[in-house]
Design goal:
- The chain has 396 residues and is of the alpha/beta class.
- The chain folds into two domains: 323 residues, Metal-dependent hydrolases (TIM Barrel, Alpha-Beta Barrel); 43 residues, no CATH class.
- It is built from 18 helices and nine strands.
- Strands 1, 2, 3, 4, 5, 6, 7, 8 and 9 form a nine-stranded parallel beta sheet that branches.
- Strand 3, helix 6 and strand 4 form a beta-alpha-beta unit.
Length: 396
């Protein structure tokens, strides 16, 4: 009896030691793995004059911090705020693509722009950081498939069909859930279905983050290739209109797609919005005063002002475990083959604790290992799943 018990204790000790060894070496695994983030809004900062070639004091991202966080591939969001109508959305999107091309050209020994999986593999083999492009919102194509083709030629490899604003051919989650919004219809129009088919034909990933439920179901009936949710989280854990319900998650998995988890506190913590609103009431005079000193558009003023008072937000920031719960939920529901990272860094002002900026990404690897995920599954979540979808979509 004593011998048997000793054997049990020894096996448990070896098991613990092996687990401990894996977790203590999480940084090595993170460094060795291909790490991809499918959504970052730092382009808005670049347009405001920030040079991300060097370490900055603003936002969550720059080239040195991408490197420090072990990030290999970043999909830069081409997002034209729909209220910016001084020039066509099409022209503004082109300008944003120009800004990323300029960043790449200024850093030729450290950065490369990829348009397919082969480019990604080649550039990583050369030791370079990989930039890719995703367009957030379909309004820059101006209801014109030729303009969609133009953006594909310029390197855009996913398009989020809507942002919060609907297009003439697809309705957004915001509009579909707004009780005061009287929509003439919901979902995809016949032209919207043509957009989906054309994206399939071109090899451009269809991104269903931001779209309404009816648009989602219409897309899933039309697409013949896997889709992505570039920056969404889980409805069952946090009832936000931007999050995906279980049946949507199952359908994405059946389609072979991937759900990339958004870090935005209101999307992961159902208690956050109430606490934030209360805090903002108290901070508003100080925030307004800071905003008046900042050069830039309303988005930049909001981001920088919140950044200046970040210590005030520390008490209400959700713990890292709350974020990991969303990775864990999707993996347990539909499998680790269908989860990825879609941080929304620089598009969000506040991030969860232990995820202050892109340099904290190794903490995801650590926490997944702690929860018992195998090294193989961690590698899939960090970037392998995205690469699988990219290859499937670009295949003619």
């Amino acid at each position: 009896m004593k011998i048997s018990r000793c054997i049990v204790y020894l096996l448990a000790a070896f098991s613990f030691a092996g687990s401990f060894h894996d977790i203590t070496n999480y940084r090595k695994l993170h460094s060795d793995a291909l790490v991809v983030d499918t959504h970052n809004d730092v382009v808005q900062y670049i347009l405001n004059g920030l040079d991300i070639s060097s370490r900055t004091v603003h936002g969550h991202s720059d080239l040195p911090r991408f490197r420090d966080g072990g990030l290999d591939v970043e999909m830069f969001s081409i997002w034209v705020p729909p209220e910016k109508t001084y020039r066509s959305y099409y022209e503004q999107a082109d300008e944003q693509i120009d800004s990323i091309e300029s960043f790449v050209l200024r850093n030729p020994t450290h950065v490369g722009l990829a348009t397919n999986s082969r480019d990604v593999e080649k550039l990583i083999g050369e030791g370079k950081f990989v930039a890719m492009l995703g367009m957030e919102g379909g309004h820059p194509i101006d209801n014109d498939l030729k303009k969609l083709e133009h953006f594909y030629r310029r390197g855009v490899r996913y398009m989020t069909l809507t942002w919060n604003n609907s297009t003439d051919w697809a309705t957004s989650a915001k509009d579909e859930t707004d009780q005061e919004k009287h929509l003439p219809r919901k979902g995809l129009t016949p032209f919207g279905k043509k957009v989906v088919r054309k994206m399939n034909e071109l090899g451009m990933m269809i991104d269903i983050s931001h779209v309404g439920e009816q648009t989602f179901w219409d897309v899933m009936k039309v697409t013949r290739k896997p889709v992505i949710a570039s920056h969404s989280s889980v409805w069952a854990l946090c009832h936000h209109r931007r999050n995906l319900k279980d049946e949507q998650l199952r359908t994405i998995a059946k389609n072979g797609g991937v759900v990339c988890i958004n870090f935005n506190p209101p999307f992961i913590d159902s208690t956050y919005a109430r606490k934030e609103n209360k805090l903002l009431e108290r901070l508003q005079p100080r925030l307004d005063s800071i905003r008046n000193t900042i050069r830039g558009d309303e988005f930049i003023k909001d981001q920088y002002a919140t950044e200046a008072l970040m210590s005030e937000f520390d008490a209400i920031r959700p713990p890292l475990s709350t974020l990991i719960d969303h990775f864990d939920y999707v993996a347990k529901l539909v499998g680790a083959d269908h989860v990825g990272i879609g941080s929304d860094f620089n598009g969000i002002a506040v991030a969860p604790k232990e995820m202050d900026d892109v340099t904290y990404l190794p903490n995801i690897t650590r926490e997944l290992l702690k929860r018992g995920y195998s090294e193989s599954d961690v590698r899939k979540i960090l970037g392998g799943n995205f690469m699988r979808v990219l290859r499937a979509v670009e295949r003619k």
